[in-house]
Amino acid sequence: MATPSYRLAAAVTAPSTGEFLVVRQLPPPSPPSTAPGEEEYQRYVDSDLYDLPSAPLRRLAADEEPVPPGVAVGGAEDGRLDLSRFDIPAALDQILNQLGSTSAMCGEWRLLKYIEEPEFGPDAGVNTVLIVGSLEPKPEVLRDSCKWMSKEGAWELLYGVRPGGTRIGPYVYIGFPKSELSSNCIAASALASQEYPPGLTLVPMKSRTLSPFRTTNLVVVQADGGACGSKRSIFFACGDALLIDPGCCSQVHTELTDLVNSVPKKLVVLVTHHHNDHIDACRSCQFPSKEVSGACYTPS
Prior knowledge:
The protein is α/β, with parallel strands linked by helices. It is globular and about 55 Å long. The strands form three sheets. Strands 1, 2, 3, 4, 5, 6, 7, 8 and 9 form a nine-stranded mixed sheet that branches. Strands 10-11-12-15-16-17 form a six-stranded mixed sheet. A two-stranded antiparallel sheet has the order 13-14. The chain has helices spanning 39-43, 88-99, 151-159, 170-175, 177-180, 253-262, 276-279; strands at residues 5-14, 19-24, 49-51, 54-56, 73-74, 109-115, 126-134, 146-149, 167-168, 194-195, 200-206, 215-222, 231-232, 237-238, 241-244, 266-271, 291-296.
């Protein structure tokens, strides 16, 4: 697998209020319109997406001297990375420029979390170094693209998504609500996964898929707020958790078994189609302690 790239994300907090700064994200570039009927797609404007400010983080070459420590990051004793081998000051300057601030306005920084992106495809992933610092006194005049947000407000927006409403990005979720509030995410420590939005987890699992890919995504969806009651008919199935495409190969069936045991008892399994990398592990989802319903979607 190729060498990953890196990003630095910063949670800039105001200790006096417990709030943190978020930045309105730029929309992705529109693809060129090459087919008839795409005019409506080209005119579509998505709602605002706010997230923690971030910037590319350059890893130093093996023969490159360490960058002078103009920025100290406390609590960085993580065996998976050596922050002295990254150009932290340059990335942090880009982040503070988004906020209209300078490093002199911030106090000490500390490592909040290091996130290694799971293997979703053959291309290199993006690993993120998430740091947290404070900004005091709290400035009330901000750039138009920035605003203060509370953890409770972020959680409300994550769970109360409305058409056309403000959206919250993954760095906010990973950095604050997920780390401090209870969540329905799967308890599968042996498997690399990504949960976003809350309650929807992607688990790339080794499978008999086509080269150059090596994994197929198992999608785990859990109901919010407890049991919804299990119902079955010839038309629909209802449960407390949904597994989509359990198609991993036999080498990781033990990990899948642990995952299935971690989700609620009333389980629905959905297979989108009959390729091996989507059905190979269906038998591993059958347990006497589980109420399992199944469905297969076949495109017409």
